[in-house]
Amino acid sequence: MITGQEKMEEQTIHISISDVAQAHFVRLLEQQEEGTNIRIFVVNPGTPNAECGVSYCPPNAIEETDTEFTFNRFSAFVDDVSLPFLDEAEIDYVTDPMGSQLTLKAPNAKMRKVADDAPFIERLDYVIQTQINPQLASHGGKVTLIEVTEDKYAILQFGGGCNGCSMVDVTLKEGIEKQLLAQFPEELVGVKDITEHQHGEHSYY
């Protein structure tokens, strides 16, 4: 059993639970079998269909390969497969006019976080998958990184609702390119789209 914030391949895994959420878990656990904690997990980690969840973790459900994160009056256990995909995960308990609910944000659930010294194309793809594509998802679209040219252009392919979109050039230049150049000012000079933008029935105009 590994205790605390786990260090994998020289990278510390951080999982945060707000004070309000911790108090909520304590109230729930008081109604469970003594020694019960919580388990945080990812189903289909590292894929577009990744989903995160929290469940009860009774004493007999703890595995030797689990990592334990200690909080106020309880622990959170994470299996070794889910662990790298839960780095920077945040759990909160929010109240709004519709009621109260737990929220779990795991920015790396669909793609494992890459190291700061990883090859540039890996760091670029990570930003596209975790920052750019979530923005395009509301339109049913996504961007795939094809390559980075020798003259420092990122070649992107649009898919989904963005394929055939008459606004794709505006989206590309004003949105994605600006965002990527701000993060990689030395590695990139621009982005280019290779998709043949044919009007389709799922396109947005």
TrEMBL record:
Record carries keyword Metal-binding: yes
Occurrences of domain NIF system FeS cluster assembly NifU C-terminal (ranges): 127-187
SUPFAM superfamilies referenced in this protein's UniProt entry, alphabetically: Fe-S cluster assembly (FSCA) domain-like, HesB-like domain
Domain (Core): residue spans on this chain: 14-112
Cofactor note: Binds 1 [4Fe-4S] cluster per subunit. The cluster is presumably bound at the interface of two monomers.
Xref: InterPro entries: ATAP_core_dom (IPR000361), Fe/S_biogenesis_protein_NfuA (IPR017726), FSCA_dom_sf (IPR034904), HesB-like_dom_sf (IPR035903), NIF_FeS_clus_asmbl_NifU_C (IPR001075)
Residues noted as binding [4Fe-4S] cluster in the record, renumbered to the chain: 162, 165
A single GO BP: iron-sulfur cluster assembly
Molecular function GO terms recorded: 4 iron, 4 sulfur cluster binding; iron ion binding
Cofactor: [4Fe-4S] cluster
Keywords recorded for this protein, A-Z: 4Fe-4S, Iron, Iron-sulfur, Metal-binding
PANTHER family for the chain: FE_S BIOGENESIS PROTEIN NFUA (PTHR11178:SF51), IRON-SULFUR CLUSTER SCAFFOLD PROTEIN NFU-RELATED (PTHR11178)
Family in the record: Belongs to the NfuA family.
Oligomeric and partner information: Homodimer.
Task performed by this protein: Involved in iron-sulfur cluster biogenesis. Binds a 4Fe-4S cluster, can transfer this cluster to apoproteins, and thereby intervenes in the maturation of Fe/S proteins. Could also act as a scaffold/chaperone for damaged Fe/S proteins.
Protein name per its UniProtKB record: Fe/S biogenesis protein NfuA
Native source species: Mannheimia varigena USDA-ARS-USMARC-1296
